[in-house]
Design a protein that fits this description.
Layout lengths: L7 E6 L2 H11 L4 E4 L3 E6 L2 E7 L9 E4 L2 E4 L3 E5 L1 H13 L4 E8 L7 E7 L5 E7 L9
Parallel strand pairs: 1-4, 7-10
Antiparallel strand pairs: 2-3, 3-4, 5-6, 8-9, 9-10
Length: 140
């Protein structure tokens, strides 16, 4: 697999102080530069920037995937199997309210994976997943 360049994603949050607490203390992400209106985070080697928009209200929409109501839009990262297990245990220990609890999809099929979904305090949906075989990321 080729080396992937880090991405940059900026998202709105309705309260920067609450969002910073969530991303730092609940998710365990380290912060970089900050201002009164924004803060950036190391999102597994990628740059995630939270921008305060006091009028932001997360819009919840779902599409059915694999018999589950998947939040759209959403973002996240694909972890290796062990990191996913450790990260999901961290979320459980922090009493995250999952939209979709960690579960195994496509068992014994191409693209077998673990996945989970939850919302941040501003209503941004996040998905974290891992593949049993990462080479099957785009397998059909």
């Amino acid at each position: 697999m080729e080396k992937i360049a880090p991405f940059h994603l900026a998202i709105p949050v309705h309260n920067l102080k609450i969002a910073r607490d969530f991303y730092e203390n609940t998710l365990g992400f380290s912060h970089g530069r900050t201002s009164e209106q924004w803060a950036d985070y190391n999102f597994f080697g990628h740059q995630l920037v939270l921008h305060e928009d006091t009028n932001f209200k997360g819009h919840k929409h779902f599409n059915e995937v694999d018999g589950k109501s998947v939040p759209v839009p959403h973002f996240g990262i694909i972890l290796n199997w062990d990191d996913f297990q450790n990260f999901s245990k961290r979320l459980i220990s922090k009493n995250i309210k999952f939209e979709i609890e960690p579960y195994l999809r496509f068992k014994d099929k191409p693209g077998e994976q673990m996945t989970l979904f939850f919302y941040d305090p501003s209503g941004n949906a996040l998905e974290f997943k891992c593949f049993k075989n990462r080479n099957q990321l785009f397998a059909v």
